[in-house]
From TrEMBL:
Protein name: Calcium-activated potassium channel subunit beta-2
Keyword Protein biosynthesis: no
Species per Swiss-Prot/TrEMBL record: Salmo trutta (Brown trout)
An example Gene Ontology biological process: detection of calcium ion
Family (UniProt): Belongs to the KCNMB (TC 8.A.14.1) family. KCNMB2 subfamily.
Keywords: Glycoprotein, Ion channel, Ion transport, Membrane, Transmembrane, Transmembrane helix, Transport
Domain KCNMB2 ball/chain stretches: 1-31
Highest taxon of the lineage: Eukaryota
Single GO term (MF): potassium channel regulator activity
Family annotation (InterPro entries): K_chnl_Ca-activ_BK_bsu (IPR003930), KCNMB2_ball/chain_dom_sf (IPR037096), KCNMB2_ball_chain_dom (IPR015382)
Subcellular compartments: Membrane
Transmembrane portions of the chain: 46-69, 199-224
Membrane topology designation: Multi-pass membrane protein
């Protein structure tokens, strides 16, 4: 009886050990599955982030290619030169319109400041514009302010520009090297530095997105290699 009871107790303890081992094994498998699921979700999010960054950079390249790069390539005022201010006077008051609400427009005026300079490289006398926007809006005027109701405020701004030009006889300007344009620019909106700054962040986004996707793919490849090596050792 004692031997029978002892053997029965040993069998019971062995079954209990197997049960405990199975439970531990199940917990390990469950933990591994949870870890793999979490890693898979993190990898999917990382790939989605990388693709979003690449898509954003492509869209920015498209928009900037139409605006900044296209305007830069079409600009003829590419050569920097020194100009001597010959004359700067207000010649007229130009009519303009400003928005006063939805489908509401009212008329106002702004003083037309006309500036003539002499190119020191060739001695040619040309009209000076503040930038490309002023040249396109009204080539006769040096500065074209945003139209608004308060004419006195616009006049004050233009007078300050006039006084500053009178104190500076020599200014840096941008001219047409072919000398086909009878005007020069004081500043360029679409210069090399502006194009570089506009393309810098989309380029960083493109590189960052590519690196994120490459790192995720590399991690997945290394994980597969480690799993294969583990199977071979077994």
């Amino acid at each position: 009886m004692f031997l029978w009871a002892g053997s029965k107790g040993a069998q019971g303890s062995g079954s209990e050990r197997r049960t405990i081992y199975q439970k531990v094994r199940e917990y390990d498998v469950l933990d591994k599955r949870k870890t793999v699921t979490a890693l898979k979700a993190g990898e999917d999010r990382a790939i989605l982030l990388g693709l979003s960054m690449i898509l954003f950079s492509v869209m920015m390249y498209f928009v900037l290619g139409i605006t900044m790069v296209h305007s830069y390539s079409d600009s003829v005022w590419t050569e920097e030169s020194s100009c001597t201010v010959l004359n700067s006077t207000i010649v007229a008051e130009i009519n303009c319109t400003y928005s006063c609400g939805s489908e509401c427009w009212k008329s106002s005026k702004y003083p037309c400041l006309q500036v003539f300079v002499s190119l020191n490289t060739s001695g040619k006398v040309v009209r000076l514009s503040h930038n490309e926007e002023a040249q396109d809006a009204n080539p006769e005027c040096f500065y074209v302010p945003k139209c608004q109701k308060d004419f006195n405020a616009i006049h004050t701004v233009v007078m300050k520009i006039l006084e500053r030009l009178k104190t500076q006889q020599q200014v840096l300007c941008y001219m047409d090297p072919g000398e086909q344009q009878d005007s020069a620019l004081l500043t360029r909106i679409y210069g090399r530095l502006a194009v570089f700054h506009s393309l810098f962040w989309p380029t960083c986004s493109l590189i960052g997105g590519t690196i994120i996707i490459a790192m995720v793919k590399l991690t997945q490849y290394l994980s597969i290699m480690c799993e294969q090596v583990g199977r071979i050792k077994r």
